[in-house]
Task: structure prediction
Amino acid sequence: MKIAFFDTKPYDKTWTVPLSAQYGYEIKFFEHKLNVDTAALTKGYDVVCAFVNDTLSSDVIDILYNMGVKLIAMRCAGYNNVDFKSAYNKINVVRVPSYSPHSVAEHAAALMLSLNRKIHRAYGRTRDNNFSINGLMGIDLNGKTAGIVGTGKIGQVFLGICKGFGMKTIAYDPYPVDNPDFEYVSLNNLFELSDIISLHCPLTPETKHLVNADRLARMKPEALLINTSRGALVNTHALIEALRASKIGGAGLDVYEEEEEYFFEDFSNEVLIDDDLARLLSFPNVLITSHQGFFTREAMQEIAAVTMKNIHAFENGETLENEVCYRCGTACVKKEGHKRCF
Ligand code: NAD
Result:
């Protein structure tokens, strides 16, 4: 199999190169993101391996199909950047549904703790020989309420972490788990009752801008919003307005609505053109990381291993356990015992 990896960094090669040698696969690592301008580079490749900020729109999928690509192997869990309807009956799409829910949940916890105790500001101060603690007061998390939106794999790990801090946990999910050891509430109640709100649901047409001006207005004035899921779950303009008006306590963001342009790249010598990102970075009570929730050794190892297994299963005509299509969950033929979605 010839595999074209897009949007790659040196750390993507660490586990992939030795594994691909074991499988006998030939890999070309492209630093460019996959989009309409770069899609033609896939000529002669069987598989395209893409990541969270690659564009797999209808145009791109048509180009890949015409170039002979048979499989799109997403090396991530989320797949909101794939036009599944266009891929259906043309190119199979697989992903890595679960690599380490701990990696993302622990990063959400890191954002929560840092933001609450203002570690990001304390670090800057002490590096500058400023040992004043004025303005750095936080709250005890013990006894406070954590509201978790989405109780899947990552949300449940985050719930457990919050319980470990002695927090009360409430959650919202349209598909609740059986016998939960936490309380499900409505989404609006969750926003009203929580001291920490953490988003752990996928980005879909239904969840886009789930955090809007109305929901932000329902939050307690000291409450913190943590988003490690997808940027477009939050309406950025509404968030900026809420922060400007001190309607909420702060935001810890590992993802951003328009992150494709900036995240994972070094712009430290350039002027930031994105005014919304610049405004968010200007708030003392906003902590932004660059989509690094997944970035632990264990997660990277697992991503490489599952990606190679997915490709191997495709090559050998085996059941594609990790395939996804737009009919999955409804009328997908895989549910009837077929090996593939089409
Ligand atoms: P999962 O599929 O196990 O869980 C998602 C949960 O969201 C499910 O329980 C589902 O029922 C729920 N959900 C669906 N629609 C919802 C809605 N409208 N409101 C509330 N909940 C809803 O997924 P996961 O592995 O826990 O991952 C969650 C998200 O984390 C992914 O979709 C992805 O966007 C994000 N993620 C981020 C990183 C990162 O590096 N920051 C890494 C991996 C995943």
